[in-house]
Amino acid sequence: MGLLQQGQWVDQWYDTGKSEGKFEREAARFRHWVTADGNAGPAGDSGFKAEAGRYHLYVSLACPWAHRTLIFRTLKNLESLIAVTVVEPHMLENGWEFAGPGQSHNARHIHGAEAEPLYGKDYLYQLYLQAAADYSGRVTVPVLWDKQQNTIVSNESADIIRMFNSAFNHLTGNSQDYYPNPLRSEIDALNERIYHNINNGVYRAGFATSQQAYEQAFDDVFNTLDWLEQRLCEQRYLTGSKLTEADWRLFTTLIRFDAVYHGHFKTNRQRLADYPQLSAYVRDLYQQPGVAATVNFEHIKQHYYYSHGEINPTRIVPKGPLQDFSLSHQRHRLDN
Ligand SMILES: N[C@@H](CCC(=O)N[C@@H](CS)C(=O)NCC(=O)O)C(=O)O
């Protein structure tokens, strides 16, 4: 694992020394927006018009942030408009790698990972350098790439799912809206709380290097799961009867919870399976059309347990847990 410093790749684990053992996630740097007409979006430059075949999405099937973008690509019928490439799950001294001859000797090819189709790159950081030769910062998935300008449109999943939600509607005819105007302030408030305490909360627990930072994150995770469990007793989804962006952002962390975060990141007060509402809710989302195909536990487990040598030096990947997200969820009873 590493990062780019003024265009040079440096193999380096997260530095928590300056923050009392707390893991602090770096903000994404590429923040342009694809819009229907190519005018500038909420951030970045203009010139990124929604067009079939123009953009390419790079993801890891392991990564909860990249997973959001894959789900939106499916929900919004963008598969034929935006092609996708899946990186290898093992993220080692060269960071994210593509399948193929350049793979580092430590990495093992896992079924489903692909070669880089546009330029034949070996590593994701090489694409970052193609976009910005002097780039400094972490090299993360997802990446939305523009084949016309040969650059990164965005490496922020929260922005990419908003683009997918609306920018291509005129091309797909799919106007399903996961961020509808009347619910925006409620969705924003949910996202804020869930990002800090759940999505990034599990990472704050797992990557903490002080007992205090770990315990704070642990409490944030479980206090928030308790609150969500309560909320989901009365209503099918987070804002009520409509599935929104807030649900999908929560889903990608919850689906990984028992397989990875509970053990590897030590968020082990309870399993997700011990929360009746939350576990049925996750099954409900998993069973929405097209979503199950975006979930790959081989990539998820291989990534976390194998890549984080600081946390799991033996790199043994656990065989369990046994779980079946296709079981009945009974949450239709909450529809009104
Ligand atoms: N803010 C980014 C975060 C993405 C992110 O942190 N992805 C992780 C994988 S789960 C990554 O690529 N990490 C590599 C690193 O930190 O070096 C987003 O939501 O798109």
TrEMBL record:
GO cellular component, one term: cytoplasm
Protein's recorded name: Putative glutathione S-transferase
Record SUPFAM superfamilies: GST C-terminal domain-like (SSF47616), Thioredoxin-like (SSF52833)
Active-site residues per Swiss-Prot or TrEMBL entry: C63 (nucleophile), Y203 (proton donor/acceptor)
Keyword Transferase among UniProt keywords: yes
Residues in GST C-terminal domain copies: 180-307
Coiled coil regions in record: none
Site (Lowers pKa of active site Cys): Y261, Y304
Keyword annotations of the record: Transferase
Residues the record lists as binding glutathione: W96, R138, V139, T140, V141, E156, S157
CDD domains to which the protein is assigned, alphabetical: GST_C_Omega_like
PANTHER family xrefs: GLUTATHIONE S-TRANSFERASE OMEGA-LIKE 1-RELATED (PTHR32419:SF6), GLUTATHIONYL-HYDROQUINONE REDUCTASE (PTHR32419)
Database matches in InterPro entries: Glutathione-S-Trfase_C-like, Glutathione-S-Trfase_C_sf, Glutathione_S-Trfase, Glutathione_S-Trfase_N, GST_Omega-like_C, GST_Omega/GSH, Thioredoxin-like_sf
Signal peptide: none
Record keyword Hydrolase present: no
GO molecular function, one term: glutathione transferase activity
